[in-house]
Write a structure and sequence with these properties.
Shape: flat
Distance between the termini: 30 Å
InterPro entries: Leu-rich_rpt, Leu-rich_rpt_typical-subtyp, LRR_dom_sf, SDS22/Internalin_LRR
Pfam family, one: LRR_8
Largest sheet: 12 strands, mixed
Helix content: 10-25%
Number of helices: 7
Strand order of the largest sheet: 1-2-3-4-5-6-7-8-9-10-11-12
Amino acid sequence: MLMGALRTDQVLKDSKASDAASVSSLKLNHKALSNVSCLRDFRNLQRLDLGFNSLTSLEDLKPCVNLKWLSVVQNKLKTLKGVEALFNLTVLNAGKNKLTSMDEVQSLVGLRALILNDNEITSICKLDQIKELNTLVLSRNPITNIGNSLLKVKSLTKVSLSNCQLEAIDSSLKSCVELKELRLAHNNIKTLPAELAKNMKLQNLDLGNNLITRWSDVKVLKSLVNLRNLNLQGNPIAENEKLAKKIRKALPNLQIFNAKPVNRGSKNEERNIEAVDDFSFNQDVKEVKQKDSVQGKAKLKEQSLAKEKKSKSGDGAEGYILEKDRKRKRQKSQDDLPKKDSQAAGGGDEPVEKKEKRKSKGKVYSEIDVIDDPEAAFSELFQAEGGDDDDDRGGTKEEVINKNVKKSSFAGESVSFPPKKKKSKKMSFDPSVLGSSTIEVGMGGPSSWDD
């Protein structure tokens, strides 16, 4: 392919197609492209990846009105002019460019995910008309305030405004009643507004590296009863252990605080058990019971040895009979051991093959199902840099999520919770179309989402 200019014949050859109208998906990233005018012929394109090229304009894409997924991450775009014609867009990733405005997206009423991190955007345009928007990433832009841009966007579930220049959020998010995850790390925020109490569904909140000092600045957190993951590291308040304890006490359902599991006391404290969460607590109880059982067996063994010693020192015939009886019991115990071991390995009487077959019968989830899940964390939405295409296919929900989390490089992963699934009639989501930019994936410590 010629450097800079894209040719129709070469695209058709690479796609093993004879007609441009038959091509619905193209991956053209990392090709040093500056001219893609030939894409005007590919009017039936639905997915297009033009990430990591040298594009300065999107005007050539206007005829591609059937596009649903578009990635132009890391190009040389200063404007999104031309994208307004793509009224069927569902996902747009234009991160890591030189954009100063995002006004062109206002007409894209079908958008569900908008990623514009690492640009030069100074203000957020009104997104009132985008009724289905659930993911908004504006990290690393010189945005000083949110204003009224999100006042009517009730569908948002995930918002990132980390590494901006925000000094306050005021009442800007009060209408975002579906919000589950909010990233505001690395700003100049000093206090949380009372209106944040309206975001009752918040589960993950990252406020790391701001200027929060006092309890009164965050007392609204008491209203967020669903909060599971909270990060305040890098704030003056995080250095005060008494205030940290007060925050933990005010949030009884908190599971992760400042990137560490929350330890809570229990009735088993006399056994030195610390309950991190229900799962680990149950495991600790089990281990204690096992320990008690081992100690009991040791005691019985000690008594048995004492009895054996006593019998050997007594009558010869009686000692012989006792020794023979012990040998018989010991042999029976050894004969039963392999059977018990095999049952343990197979999980009781159920064969391993049957268990594996039963596990494999889960519903197959596509990546778009994860994006539509309002309780999925950002780390579950986008693959990390350098992902293989072969790994971007569907699977069970756990496989999809674990695959993306494993690819991330951030140590503190976000807590995710069982989703309330809704049937989606949309096409399955291919994360590669979003490009390879690393999206924020952690809650603890310095936020490094878009590094």
